[in-house]
Amino acid sequence: MAETKRPATAKPGYVVFRQIREGDWRLVGEADRMPGHTARAARAQAIRDATGGKAKDGEIYAAVLRSEWRIALEC
Fold first, then answer.
1. Using 50, 70 and 90 to split pLDDT, how confident is the model at 8?
2. Based on the structure, what is the number of domains in the chain?
3. Tens of pLDDT along 17-73?
4. Could you give the angle at the alpha carbon of 28 between the alpha carbons of 60 and 67, nearest 5°?
5. 58: in domain
6. Distance between CA atoms of 43 and 16, rounded to whole angstroms?
7. Mapping DSSP to helix (H, G, I), strand (E, B) and coil, where does residue 55 land?
């Protein structure tokens, strides 16, 4: 399998999804990781950033590391 090289200037970040119903997820967007935050706080911030602050109580979101998302696409 050929390796894909990531540009040296690529920032760490997240790919954000919203659950529509059980087993059905939709891509919301991407957000850069904010340095200095814990992993949990950084994911929460990524969700706020990707939704423009419009995430509502009761909605389910997932913030996946951008690097993990890229690796998953190689399989």
1. low
2. 1
3. 999 999 999 999 999 998 899 999 999 999 999 999 999 999 999 999 998 887 887
4. 95
5. yes
6. 9
7. coil
Q: Give the pLDDT confidence score for residue 31 in this predicted structure.
A: 96
Q: Which domain holds residue 68?
A: 13-73
Task: Please answer whether residues 69 and 30 qualify as being in contact, where contact means their C-beta atoms are separated by less than 8 angstroms.
Answer: no
Written as one letter, the residue type at 25 is W
Cβ distance 61 to 19 under 8 Å? Answer: yes
Smallest CA-to-CA distance from 69 within 10, 22, 23 is with 10
The pTM of the full predicted model, rounded to 2 decimals, is 0.79
Alpha-carbon span 12 to 67, nearest angstrom: 7
> What number of CA atoms fall less than 13 Å from residue 47's CA on the CB side?
17
